[in-house]
Write a structure and sequence with these properties.
The chain contains six helices and no strands. The N terminus is likely disordered. One of its GO terms (cellular component) is vacuolar membrane. It is a multi-pass membrane protein.
Length: 201
């Protein structure tokens, strides 16, 4: 009797790779984008709330917010570029010391300073637009402040949920800490500016 040949038939890979997907690969751009958007939202909203504590002028609030948007986006981009460039230098030096032979594979995993900087700047500007747009069409001062807080609250919850969704982390915990942090920043800025303004400083 002839021996039976063992033929191995390759099994097609399952298109659904979610179970084996390494979500840490998203960490670089996700961290830059989510943090940038949250910083833009909270920083500009806090600046506008601080000005709103001592001035009823809508133009002053909007100009302050716009200046904060431009300055913050530039600062985030430069800071992220420097930070990620330093990380890149460290990893390249580590690869050279270890004599890595598969450079093409390694390059795909190396951090990208320009990508991180662009993501931070764009995300910051995107987040900063929320309080700016919320304040642009409201004439009454108190209503304007209320609308800004409401818009920022909604955006904070969304950013917290979105970051948790992409990173597959608990959504409630993420939303809670982002929301509370944003509220605290606006309240502290508003309160201290009001205090200083009322004392004539």
């Amino acid at each position: 009797m002839a021996a039976q040949n063992n033929i191995s038939i390759p099994i097609p890979e399952n298109k659904s790779v979610e179970e084996g997907y390494d979500y840490s690969q998203r960490g670089q751009w996700l961290r830059a984008a989510v943090l940038g958007a949250s910083d833009g939202l909270v920083s500009v909203a806090s600046l506008m709330m601080g000005i709103g504590a001592v001035k009823n002028d809508a133009k002053a609030m909007i100009l302050t917010g716009f200046a904060g948007l431009v300055a913050g986006a530039c600062s985030m981009a430069i800071g992220e570029f420097v930070s990620v460039s330093s990380q890149l230098d460290i990893e390249v030096s580590h690869m050279k010391r270890n004599g890595s032979s598969n450079e093409e594979s390694e390059n795909e995993k190396l951090p990208n300073p320009m990508q991180a900087a662009a993501a931070s700047a764009i995300a910051f500007a995107f987040g900063a637009m929320v309080p700016l747009l919320a304040a642009s069409f409201i004439v009454n001062h108190k209503v304007r402040l209320t609308v800004v807080v409401a818009a920022v609250t909604f955006a904070l919850v969304f950013f917290g949920w979105f970051g948790a969704f992409l990173g597959r982390t608990p959504a409630v915990k993420s939303c809670f800490r982002v929301l509370v942090g944003g509220w605290m920043a606006m309240a502290i800025t508003f309160g201290l500016t009001k205090l200083i303004g009322s004392n004539g400083l």
